[in-house]
Amino acid sequence: xxxISLFSIFILSTMLLMSCGATPGLTNLTQNVDANLPVxxxxxxxxxxxxxxxxxxxxxxxxxxxxxxxxxDQGYHLELNISLNDYSKIAxxxxxxxxxxxxxxxxxxxxxxxPQLTRKNTEINETxxxxxxxxxxxxxxxxxxxxxx
Length: 149
What we know:
By secondary structure, the chain is an alpha+beta fold. The protein is built from three helices and six strands, in the order αββββαββα. A hairpin with a 2-residue loop joins strand 2 and strand 3. The chain starts with a helix and ends with a helix.
């Protein structure tokens, strides 16, 4: 009798969860993403490259020595799955850089790679050189994602 009551409770709980829209044991990991959202490629002052798409952040350091301060990745390629919300935060900072005037870094400064930002989708393909402030803004928004790994 006890088995029947436990089984009944299990069935009722499952039915309750399913009527609420939940499906036990299943999760929806795919996101409904607009295919025309831009993909941004950011080249920082050290030559490291970041590719930001609606579901991934890809980091390609120039070398083990040129990685962002505080990150112990030894210069390895890194691919992170990011949420659409995280993409939106990074993309908003990238979009802002295309909307404001960029003050070019001095040409005489040969210690740095000229930082650039590229925005690409089916309609747009443009690249801009970034100012020191723009680099700081982009590093500020991207750096926390890399420190988690």
